[in-house]
Amino acid sequence: MKLKGILFPVFLAVVGTVGGLNVSAEEMSATGIKPKNIIFMIGDGMGPNYLAAYRYFKHGDSVVDSVNATIFDEHWVGVAKTYPHDETIVTDSAASGTALSTGVKTYNGAVGVGTDQQSLATWFELAKREGKSTGLAVSSPVTHATPASFYAHQKKRNPQEPIADDFIDNKVNNQFVVDVAFGGGTDFFIRKDRDVVSELQKSGFNYIDDIEKLGTLTDMPVLGLFGAYGLPSAIERDTASLAKMTNTALRLLSKNEKGFVLMVEGSQIDWCGHANDIACAMAEMQDFENAVESVMAFAKNDGNTLVVITADHETGGLSISADEASIWKPSVIKRVHISAATLAKNMKVTDGSKEQIESAWSKHIYFNLQKKELDALVAAHSINEDAIAWVIKGVINTRSSTGWTTVKHTALDVPVMAFGVGSERFRGVMENTYIGQTLHALVKP
Question: Residue-wise over 51-71: b if at least 16 C-beta within 10 A, else e?
Fold first, then answer.
């Protein structure tokens, strides 16, 4: 498939489909066939600018006539508004995650609760009431704001220890809300005050802490924690990690004849955006795309599955070109094979000499430093790791002509992609709560 001069395929043909009809999610879902299984994928921080950047990153510098579409382009059918229920306009992951999980707007920081701080019914809880299995696969801690919004109820997203407690304490019809969970967060589950993992095992949960043991799992419920906090950055690990967790979740969840719901999050796209690290962000996009490809293959083979993909918000205000030259150079980014944070750590433990700094650089970045760039890194070495990291990112962003407007979130609308049974319900411009409300309606009998 080729794109020719169209940044947002299909969208122009369907603008207003949701808003223009002025119907509720319940009305939209009351007719037509409902899917047996629903897979909901969230690219945390993944605004439309990330999709465009990733498309050109995959294609390369030379664009003369046309650009190959990504799997995101092939299923891009709408956009969602992300604002929270406060005066900021800019959401955080907790408020947006809650909107997507419950169909209700709330304040920044809220996890599964409304503006009155009372618990809201989550998508997972509703699915469990209908006899479906539930699962999540994320590269963040399982207790992070977005995944937490699907099973926990907390007035604040931090600290995360109470969210880990909710994982075991919150139940539906005396059943655990989550049947399959893969991600990070060991530090929040295994603590001096409470060992949640041990309690889960005593309650019948399988538990693994090595991602290479995913293939040994045969039964639900299961918890897999593969990092004290999150997984390592995708640029420094196997970019099939999220796909491996997703495939295992699909294999286990499919055993339920009543169907399942699964939430998959490319969590660290957001982290790279906060860091303004473009090479890191593109690696996370690749990790997420690999998971999307696995999900699409499952859905096409199954024939009774809906796939919905979106983002909770955009992070960093990513700009594809950032200077008067009006050019972007993805080939520069492709020569970077380490996150700026990790390279800064590697440089900090050296003696700070030009030779040592250059040696650390050349091990993972395959273009040479200019004299002024090297001098800046040597100067930053005498300050701290953060200073080194910002110089590293400055070099890469300048060389590739990548721009950022903030280290926080923005209020940009986010893309919506859909495929499979019921996908027509997600076309056009919509509230993020419409997505949550429709997911709810589709699991109701």
Answer: bbbbbbbbbeeeeeeebebbb
Torsion from C-alpha of 202, 207, 209, 212, nearest 10 degrees = 160
Burial of 149 (0-12, 13-18, 19+ CB in 10 A): buried
Statement: residue 6 has pLDDT above 60: no
pLDDT for the residue 66: 74
Among the listed residues 29, 93, 101, 140, the single catalytic one is: 93
Looking at the structure, tell me whether residues 198 and 160 fall in a common domain: yes
Given this model, what pLDDT does residue 8 score?
39
Identify whether 8 is part of a domain. Answer: no
Range of the domain at 375: 329-400
Determine the pLDDT at residue 33: 84
pTM across the whole model? 0.93
Reply yes or no on whether 423 is catalytic: no
In a domain, 88, yes or no: yes
CA distances 318 to 5, 45, 128, 273, 405, Å, are 21, 10, 38, 8, 7
Model confidence at 26: pLDDT above 70 = no
- 269 with 380, same domain: the answer is no
Q: Is the distance from CB of 223 to CB of 184 less than 8 angstroms? A: no
Q: Is the domain of 363 the same as that of 269?
A: no
Q: What is the dihedral angle through the alpha carbons of 312, 45, 222, 114, rounded to the nearest 10 degrees?
A: -30
pLDDT at 323: 83
